[in-house]
Design brief:
Order of helices and strands: EEEEEEEEEEH
Strand order of the largest sheet: 1-2-9-4-7
Distance between the termini: 39 Å
CATH architecture: Sandwich
Oligomer: single chain
Number of helices: 1
Strand content: 35-45%
Largest sheet: 5 strands, antiparallel
Structural class: mainly beta
Number of domains: 1
Length: about 140
């Protein structure tokens, strides 16, 4: 296909990979990687300038969300269903747990990164919640 007409991208590796950037937005794929094993998840993140949309394409995933300052005061699990859109609102703490065969589509602002994101450690109770939520 002529690339001036249509851009075709895919990703079958591990972890996060931006695939298409255009104007102010980005589309990425995130897949299982060892840093997202339940025992290795040690923090949550939030984006202070933008929402972030997650769509489960394959496998199983649980999205953990919470609010509060300076870190997540509570953390709630949301088991994701395939092809549903999950819009994590601006400044909401989150992390995600993947099955080994999971693939998640992410839509976010193109400049989302460490400059406009914050990170906070999980409490022992929150880590236990994630460990109990193994996929």
């Amino acid at each position: 296909m002529d690339p001036t007409l249509i851009e075709i991208r895919d990703y079958n590796g591990e972890g996060y990979r931006p695939l298409i950037d255009y104007a102010s937005w980005r589309v990425a794929i995130m897949r299982h990687c060892d840093s997202h094993l339940p025992e290795k998840i040690e923090r949550v993140e939030r984006h202070v300038e933008t929402d972030e949309v997650f769509v489960l394409l394959a496998g199983r995933a649980t999205l953990f969300v919470g609010d509060g300052d300076p870190g997540a005061q509570r953390l709630l699990p949301q088991v994701m269903e395939p092809l549903k859109l999950y819009n994590v609102k601006r400044s909401i703490w989150h992390t995600i747990l993947f099955s080994r065969d999971a693939s998640v589509l992410i839509v976010e602002n193109r400049d989302t990164g460490s400059r406009n994101s914050q990170f906070a450690p999980l409490t022992p109770e929150q880590r236990d919640l994630i460990l109990r939520s193994r996929l």
